Amino acid sequence: MTIIKNDSIHCSNYSNGHLILNKEFILIVTIATALAVFFIFDGFILGDSIRYALGVKALEQNNYKVLPSVFNYEMSFGYYLVIIWLKTILNFQGELSRLMNGLSAGASVLMTCFLFMFVQSLFNRRIAFFTCLSVLLSPAIWMLSHYGNPNILGMSFFLGSLFFLDKSISSTGNSYLKNIYWISFTLLVFTAVTVRMDMALAFGAYFGLIYFRRARITPDIIKLIGALAVALLLTYGLRYYIWGNVVDQFRGALGYHLGSRLPAAQIFPSIIKNLSLWMVGANIFVAILALLGLRRFGLKSGIVVLFSFWLLPFLIYLPFQGMDTPRLIAPTIPAICLVAMGYLDHNFESVKKKTLFMLLVLVLAQMGPAVFYYPAEKFYQRYAGIKRETPPAYPLGLIPLDHFRLQRFVRAQDDLAKRIAGERNGNVLIIDFSPGVMYYIYHLMVSRSVFSQEIVWCDNVRLKKFVTKENTFLVMDKDINIQQRSPISTALQCPKISVNKVHLSPFSGEFPFDKGKLYLGEEELKSLLENETSLFQHMREVIR
Asked: Which of 322, 325, 522, 539 is the most buried (most CB within 10 A)?
């Protein structure tokens, strides 16, 4: 191992291209595996995970030609292929959530391995260890590592491609080995963008890495562009082979986002909100350390150029409202943690026990948010009149505590949805304006024989209708319904539907729910309808 100086940070260059196992690597992989196994979620978390599962079911029942009709196919069509492929080779017959969550957990371990090897090849084992540890403990990565979502799988392949690109441009001699590195890089890029198309925004990191290495910049950039072109051709070729076109779906998705998520009056507030969520997703304290590191290293330093090329393309998400920012910016978190840990390692050279010091900083970074979040949560619930505890979608206090709070909440929602979906006596109207509405739809589609499903309009109120052998279910979800003056009254008076059971699900923490009583009685329904206008005005304010 040769130690060289790069922008005042010690860099290591492994010219032989082999992985050098060490205790730090073994320790961080052990930690990643333990977290993946112990904290994996039981069941579906959030609505998107269920939508992907419903897409898998649709593909299995039909064929790949229906792929354009499933959720988020234009962005993550490869994720569906991976899930179905795993189900086939493993002969998997259990709950689909277990397979999807397990895949994410395994991908988080693979991501940790690639990230450690990549950072170790740039700097040293200590920075690599603490970069991986801070990534694993960032709220966004924590969530993505423990429930079914394509982001963490795409990230693992992307970080693997970074590692092989670094080996391609930094190793000397043995052209046969370098060719293997380039082929591995191309295949990993192809897999990453197939699983998650917006992983292409992270391509800037490849060019930043070439600048960082200051190798043969022009030949390496030409090879890089050629490899990326091949990877994208493979991706689009696979898309065309499956459903016969490439571009049409992108135009529709782009038009939807531009039309519904980019109102001119909300651009500046959205930027502020999304930047805040970006820092929360990475861990606020670690993000601040990264900002200090950028100032300390200077704009022309290799690590800052690598960071900037890696991160800046993701700024495209900032003006949009209603986006899941922590999940979307997750691929930038390794870059943020790398600069933050590089700053700690370099700026505190005088500290004798630097490893212990960096570990203490990470502990404080985890404890700090809890000091502010939990009191603020109680104050907000009292101010907003919320009578039920609702855990955050992403950890905002202590990560393990928020994890188990969300797990309990999800189990309760899942149990409630199973009981309602199992109703066979009478037609049911389900009212739910939270992401939990997907649990009802999933259990209806999986556990019941649904003969038909359609959208029913009652004035401006939209209902999803599911017809089974025994009865009919109508689901009133958020969409435009929350904006209506009296959506429940409108639906119950609609001549197109006939229901004799009304289930009001707890949403946004508003309604404590007695599990012994699944449906509203006459007096409860009468009281609800009398106060419906003021209730939904309050709901709109809380959700906003």
From this structure: 325
